[in-house]
Amino acid sequence: MIQKEEREENGFDLATGGDLIRPPVVVYVGLTVMVAYGLVEDDDDVEPRTGFKDDDDVESCVGVTVVVMASYVALSSPIHCKQFEFPSLISRKSRSRVNFRRTQAGVISCDYSCIEVRDVCYRPPGTQLNILNGVSFSLPEKSLGLIFGQSGSGKTTLLQLLAGLSKPTSGSIYVQKYGHDGKPNMSSEPLPPERVGIVFQFPERYFVADNVLDEVIFGWPRQSGELQLKEYLALNLQRAVNWVGLSGISLDKDPHSLSGGYKRRLALAIQLVQIPDLLILDEPLAGLDWKARADVVKLLKHLKKELTILVVSHDLKELVSLVDQSWRMDMGGVLMEEPLPV
Ligand SMILES: Nc1ncnc2c1ncn2[C@@H]1O[C@H](COP(=O)(O)OP(=O)(O)OP(=O)(O)O)[C@@H](O)[C@H]1O
Q1: Closest Cα partner for 122 from 159, 148, 151, 150?
Q2: Each residue of 183-229: pLDDT tens digit?
Q3: CA 203 / ligand 1 centre spacing (Å)
């Protein structure tokens, strides 16, 4: 569940992709005082502030008071956030944050999920050499993992396996739920390719449409039978656009005319429409000027509150503040955990 304080940071609501709109507490207190004042006035006279004029209206006064206070409590509580949760294979609780959280019913819930990569090897068809050798790691939901390492060590190959673009020669990739004791509490589930969003290096080079809207919907199903999926995507479109801060940009605009940072935002929005269980970013800062890089880092800071993100990058210094776990890929496709800063 999205925590209230997390949603309110910087006044930005990540669940809805918009600004938080909540009347200040003074409005509620003022309304309550005003209505309560009506209770102690002479019931036979018309009370100008409330409009109540006889004993029967006492019940109305009490009712209105309760409603006003209840609406404040509802808007202030995590229960209000619950309605914005996303459909997902992965429960929205993170090991890296808080393991114990109260549900609506007040029951303590403490399970969490991880993307698990176990002993994965990859050898391209027709070749004799493994590019990846026994790669294993675990990425808790709603955390950001970083993989760095020498050029040619196999980082992009690993991302392609995670996105389902190639299949491991051996080993497995799956989603595992755990209980608070750290033990798996259900059988694992595969990580379907359609639940993984991937943004390759320099995604703007692959823009094909001549306006932002067409670019976003380019990969959507065209068949008439896919109506439900299209409706789901359409519902998420505005949220994705808000999420990445593209709401001020006209959907008619030519994507190629956007600034470098905004092109990256658009590439992210395209993936976010499907609300992926895993968002993979290959060198998200590459080729951007300092301002656009800072913008993308800030955006990732927001996104990691809602999504599980795996980044491959050489830009360790700029990303260090976002990283929950990091690994170094050595030549020969061997992955080792290595905390930052290195
Ligand atoms: N289909 C393939 N057949 C043969 N070799 C391949 C294939 N795909 C990748 N390789 C080789 O595997 C090695 C790892 O490539 P990969 O692109 O995964 O490295 P990388 O760590 O992402 O590098 P960079 O940081 O430069 O992007 C490279 O030497 C590459 O040439």
Answers
A1: 159
A2: 888 888 989 998 999 999 899 998 989 999 889 888 777 776 677 77
A3: 18
Structure tokens at 12: 């930005």
3-class secondary-structure state, position 130:
coil
Residues 263-283 have pLDDT tens digits of 999 999 999 988 899 999 999
Taking Cα atoms as reference points, which of 288, 235, 228 lies closest to residue 262?
Answer: 288
Which amino acid is residue 113, in one-letter code? S
Query: Which residue has tokens 């993307």?
Result: 115
User: By alpha-carbon position, which residue is closest to atom 3 of ligand 1?
Assistant: 124
Consecutive H or E run containing 298: helix 290-303
Residue whose Cα lies nearest atom 13 of ligand 1: it is 152
The preferred substitution site among 153, 160, 328, 329 for testing ligand 1, maximizing ligand atoms within 8 Å of CB, is 153
Distance CA 104, CA 106 (A): 5
How many Å lie between the centroid of ligand 1 and the Cα of residue 113?
A: 30
Give the CA distances from residue 174 to residues 89, 212, 217, in Å, rounded to whole numbers and listed in that order. Answer: 11, 34, 28
Q: What is the ipTM, given to two decimal places?
A: 0.95
**Ligand 1 atom 29: residue of nearest CA:** 152
The SS3 assignment for 106 reads coil
How far does the centroid of ligand 1 lie from the alpha carbon of residue 313, in Å?
Answer: 15
Nearest ligand 1 atom to the CA of 149 is 21
Secondary structure class of 51 (helix, strand, coil):
coil
Residue with tokens 């040619």: 152
Atom of ligand 1 nearest to the CA of 158: 18
Amino acid at 215: E
Rounded-to-integer distance, Cα 84 and Cα 15, Å: 6
Residues with CB under 6 A from ligand 1: 124, 127, 131, 151-157
